[in-house]
Amino acid sequence: MGDAVVEKGAVLITGAGRGIGREIALRLAHLGYPLVLLSKTEAHLRETQALCAALVPSRVLVLDVTREEEIPILRECLADVPRLHAVVNNAGVGEWEDLETLSTAAWDWQIATNLRGPFWIIRETLPILKRQRCGLYVNIGSDCSLVGMPRRAAYNASKFGLVGLTVCLRTEGSAHGVHAAMVYLGKTDTYFRNHRPGSRSNALTGRDAAEPVAFVIDAYPRIVIEEISVFAPGEHLAGTRSLL
Ligand SMILES: NC(=O)c1ccc[n+]([C@@H]2O[C@H](COP(=O)([O-])OP(=O)(O)OC[C@H]3O[C@@H](n4cnc5c(N)ncnc54)[C@H](OP(=O)(O)O)[C@@H]3O)[C@@H](O)[C@H]2O)c1
């Protein structure tokens, strides 16, 4: 008698409508993970879902991670998901501006999306992962999680903050079998900051960026990879990672 086939648990991906999130979805679909695709724009999510449809079942959740009143929909959406393998906090935004002229609105938007959003997603899903006594958070960081850069005050603060949130989550989660990873990505050729794929030279492709994320998820729970940094060769942050 052969080994029983173990059904893979689902993976929730925020910002799955396009860019890196969509590529993570596609990579995980090829690996056979059922998906919960969360993002702001339904049309983008439906395109991602269509691309994964031949490979795995998926559901779409239109939700803005900056709006607290929308967060409880997530719990409803996950209620009949038999097992949640991982949660990827990928939705993120950036706007570069000198500190002196950075508006409060731009500051709030970046902190709300990149830091408070993951906090709410984690707060809502942590009871599920604890109950399972297994589950992985993968939080998407940046070179701006590791080094300060001019004109990135809000983005730097949000991405450094996400590291702090992740480290705390590890300390609270470990007794319950819950783990958390940071994946630090360098410049990636997506829609980020109103770019268009194809417009950024010396950058990772969305697919390049998705590869290590899927690797960390697929390795779990056999091994726990807590941190991984991925950069295009010219973007390599040699010698600047002394912070962590
Ligand atoms: N691109 C880079 O150079 C780079 C480098 C390092 C790290 N990162 C990080 O990688 C992550 C993904 O970025 P990306 O390059 O893939 O950007 P992207 O191409 O602009 O895609 C971002 C995705 O996040 C979604 N999103 C934005 N705000 C949201 C909100 N409030 N609620 C729910 N979903 C929201 C977008 O939704 P819509 O479908 O509505 O647009 C979109 O699907 C971010 O955390 C970013 O900080 C990017």
The percent range for strand residues is 15-25%
Bound molecules: NADP nicotinamide-adenine-dinucleotide phosphate
Q: How many DSSP-defined strands?
A: 9
Order of strands in the sheet with most strands: 3-2-1-4-5-6-9
Total of helices: 6
The ordered H/E elements are EHEHEHEHEHEEEHE
Which segments are poorly predicted (pLDDT under 50) over 5 or more consecutive residues? none
**Overall geometric form:** globular
The largest pleated sheet is described as: 7 strands, parallel
Helix and strand composition category: alpha/beta
Q: Could you give a quick summary of the protein structure above?
A:
This protein has 244 residues and is of the alpha/beta class.
Kindly describe this structure.
With 244 residues, this protein is an alpha/beta fold. The protein is built from six helices and nine strands; from the N terminus they run E-H-E-H-E-H-E-H-E-H-E-E-E-H-E. 39% of the residues lie in helices and 18% in strands. Strands 3-2-1-4-5-6-9 form a seven-stranded parallel sheet, with helices on both faces. A two-stranded parallel sheet has the order 7-8. The protein is globular. The model has no long low-confidence stretch (mean pLDDT 95). The structure holds NADP nicotinamide-adenine-dinucleotide phosphate. Residues 14-15, 17-21, 39-41, 44, 64-66, 90-94, 113, 140, 142, 185, 187-188, 190-192 line the site of NADP nicotinamide-adenine-dinucleotide phosphate.
